[in-house]
């Protein structure tokens, strides 16, 4: 079974989020194009924690086949929020 991945880019105005995205995209792109991984959702880059959590939950619910350990996100606020806001 291959991973089904949700990729959440950070706020496009945040340079750190852009750099993180460029880093993991450089690695993940070949996995997606080869079919080894499947990108199932790319929620918008909205990065206040409550909005990010809502967007993530909607994507995760819509794609129940997403592997729980296959989420790529650029924001430490989002990661904290998914751990503590739900």
| Poorly predicted runs | 79-86
The first-to-last residue Cα distance is: 28 Å
* Topology-level CATH name: Rossmann fold
> What's the Cα radius of gyration?
12 Å
Major sheet attributes: 3 strands, parallel
The total domain count is 1
Strand and helix layout:
Elements: E1 4-8, H1 15-34, E2 38-41, H2 49-62, E3 71-73, H3 76-84
Q: How would you describe this structure to a colleague?
A:
The chain is an alpha/beta fold. The chain has one domain: Rossmann fold, CATH 3.40.50. It is built from three helices and three strands. It has helices at residues 15-34, 49-62, 76-84; strands at residues 4-8, 38-41, 71-73. Strand 1 (4-8), helix 1 and strand 2 form a beta-alpha-beta unit. Helix 2 packs across helix 3.
Compact overview of the structure:
By secondary structure, the protein is α/β, with parallel strands linked by helices. The protein has helices at residues 15-34, 49-62, 76-84; strands at residues 4-8, 38-41, 71-73.
Q: What tags apply to this protein structure?
A:
single chain; 86 residues; alpha/beta; Rossmann fold; three-stranded parallel beta sheet; 3 helices; 14% strand; flat; disordered C terminus
